[in-house]
Amino acid sequence: MRRNRIGKNKLRGIRSVRQDEAQGVGTIFADFVAGTTWTDVARQNHEAKRSILNFFATALGSAHDPAVGVALRVLSPFSGAATSAIIGRSERLDAMGAAFVNAISANLLDFDDTHLDTIIHPAAPVAAPVLALAQARGLSGRDVLIAFILGVEVECRVGNAVSPGHYARGWHITSTCGVFGAAAACAKLLGLPAVQISNAIGIAASQSAGIVENLPSAAKNVSVGNAARNGLFAALLAAEGYSASPRAIEGPLGWARAMGDEPDLERLTDSLGKTWEIAKNTYKPYPAGIVFHAVIDACFKLREKLDRRIDDIAFITVRGSALLLARGDRPVCNERDARVSIHHCAACALLLGAAGITEFSDAIVFRPEIAALRQKVKAELDASLPDGAARVAIQMASGEMLSEVVMEAKGSLADPLSDRDIEAKMRDCARLGQSDWDIDRIIDDVWRLDTLADVSSLMRAHG
Amino acid sequence: MRRNRIGKNKLRGIRSVRQDEAQGVGTIFADFVAGTTWTDVARQNHEAKRSILNFFATALGSAHDPAVGVALRVLSPFSGAATSAIIGRSERLDAMGAAFVNAISANLLDFDDTHLDTIIHPAAPVAAPVLALAQARGLSGRDVLIAFILGVEVECRVGNAVSPGHYARGWHITSTCGVFGAAAACAKLLGLPAVQISNAIGIAASQSAGIVENLPSAAKNVSVGNAARNGLFAALLAAEGYSASPRAIEGPLGWARAMGDEPDLERLTDSLGKTWEIAKNTYKPYPAGIVFHAVIDACFKLREKLDRRIDDIAFITVRGSALLLARGDRPVCNERDARVSIHHCAACALLLGAAGITEFSDAIVFRPEIAALRQKVKAELDASLPDGAARVAIQMASGEMLSEVVMEAKGSLADPLSDRDIEAKMRDCARLGQSDWDIDRIIDDVWRLDTLADVSSLMRAHG
Lengths: 463, 463
What we know:
Two copies of one chain form a homodimer. The first copy, chain A, is α+β, with helices and mostly antiparallel strands. Chain A has two domains: 9-285 and 417-457, 2-methylcitrate dehydratase PrpD (Orthogonal Bundle), CATH 1.10.4100; 290-406, CATH 3.30.1330.120. Chain A has helices spanning 9-19, 25-35, 38-41, 45-61, 66-75, 95-107, 123-137, 141-162, 165-168, 173-189, 194-205, 219-239, 255-258, 265-269, 293-306, 322-328, 335-338, 342-352, 362-365, 368-375, 419-433, 439-447, and strands at residues 84-85, 92-93, 113-115, 281-283, 313-320, 377-381, 390-396, 401-406. In chain A, a hairpin with a 4-residue loop joins strand 7 (390-396) and strand 8. Chains A and B meet through helix 5, helix 6, helix 11, helix 12 and helix 13 of A and helix 5, helix 6, helix 11, helix 12 and helix 13 of B.
């Protein structure tokens, strides 16, 4: 792998922004990405491995999902030499095709990692192209980790600068910001000099797409997959000399303004290299929308108080922020609805004491006792609660009232999943995905990723 | 080619919009696209051929441009079976790769066709994937013409609905709307039923991208190429069952709102099947931004009045709308600048009496007399003039003042290029592109496109 070490220059690059407002954000990011070495990111190494482990968990969980099968079938006749694995399967595609398909499968279960400040799911669009490219070129685990950490950094900083208006306007932020992260990561992995990294990031701005209106449909997969594929494409084009505006993100006719955003330039570049967005990554314990996790946790606590008196429940009131109601107060007709339903989350947690992959399957969604309990749930606004919190009250037929409030759900930064929790999630997902890949080996390889000389050994069914 | 003829149902589909507001624009477009037959479009046939001839002209003109070479080099290792020609060259790629590269080359010279209401360049993103796919599958010229006409219809109607705010906000409208046209056209070419055409259009909404900030750079090529490639991709995914929201364009969290636009729903679907956007297509006589064409025409008239007294010019004042000034009042450092320079356009037209491909080459851009004459040009706002008009006044050293105004430039709908003009443009472009493709044969084949049983015969160097 060729490298272009700018070293201490990156600090000069960053400082000069304030002195010289003519320097574009693309240039600042590029100097930072080009100049960052293993030493700079070593302390982020463990969180990056946790993210990548969660990425494999979710990709393995959907390895045989029909949407993955369709993407593979469509792309196979359009693949060059098949260098890169489709995670959890025996097929391969070229690195751009594999990046597309693996990003889809990592995102399909809505069980991703989550950067809570933006609700970006960072790993799918970044890890997918990084691993596909690294496998194609026989690069090391350390190369992968550096590129992944930097990609997540760029992706989430772009998201920070336009949140929360961006998502609210209809942009699927994982897709729209993911392509920047994928471009930066792949450009780093290719060892490009700063000017070409800036071009890759600028080319990403001309490929940023994906709308919330399409989220309940397979079209969501296309924007997530494209973010991964097109970030890699941007880096490959930049490596061959394609250019872009260094102000593609923040310029007067650039990405942020076109997208309807007034970017917060401070949040784009402030403390670059000192704080790390990967450190703010979280992992879902439940395959439901993250705003429902506090509902589930509150219902787990209430289940202990209930002591099996389910039939005596008169009704259940779930209170939370406007976001909770906007996302989750809806009828449930299928698995996808269930994963974004206040009613279903509460019913499963109370009746079954569980909210894993099984509890969001059709078998449970259509179970009469669950459907009946969903009917007893109503959602109400409590504007005093922050996003991500929930208060659940149960009115018993006897007149007794039980209540629990959860401010920080399991899986949040305040109550993170342990490494063992993520391993257990991995095993759960792998069971669901019916993959024959050796899970123990993947877990071992990810934990020692910084010592792998060639990540190709990770990207196959057996060691 | 499989077909799904909805026939008279399309009218029912269109009427029902007003009665039943629940029907999405995607569904309306899809019913229209699925139900349109050759008889419905036969009267648009000749204008479609003119567009396609102009498309070949511009693609041949840039066949050996370095930007085309880079795209080919980057995509070659990522191509499946090479079914589809790169226009003007000997290489082939798979249909998605060829769609990307041919859209780039058709757009590189800024010598495209232009739909003046939106400033969309309709052919590049639509003709490129249609021809690449038709060649791969051995489809007929008539299939190509129907698909192309329908693709341009959807592309330009989406553009109409969001113009002029969309471009002004920073969206490169040829890229952002082109993907809808490409998707609709390829879905028609694949013979998909209406529900899948609607899905293809919805998937396009999640791939719509491209920013004006990147226009002076190679990143522009990426969004134009992606519009072509991703429209085809959307159709292929829809054919295999991928779905999208039927309200992906106009829904509350859909494309138009996310893009910052309030779509004019009337303009999306009004008189669908009765009026045709292809009939409003125009072809540039000069390879400069279209707003400069009136400047050139005015200077041609002034050149006759001047009668070679170029050295006696004191200064030249070009007056036009705010758009003219915003686009063209800039220093000239290279060919790309020259094609969007008021100063260069005026200087060439006055001194050389020409504004063809040669006049925008570096050899002329750096010629001392041209550079000196550019210095004498100043641009001034005349808010009373519409976009596309120009008033040019020459102050002679003697005190004499010469003046001309052009309200409708050559190439506009009021003064269109003749078929022979487009053929001549084709020959000019081909000379520039140094292609060995047989130009006479391409011209013949395009004029008789509706009789070609297999367009593969058109997509090669020699008949």
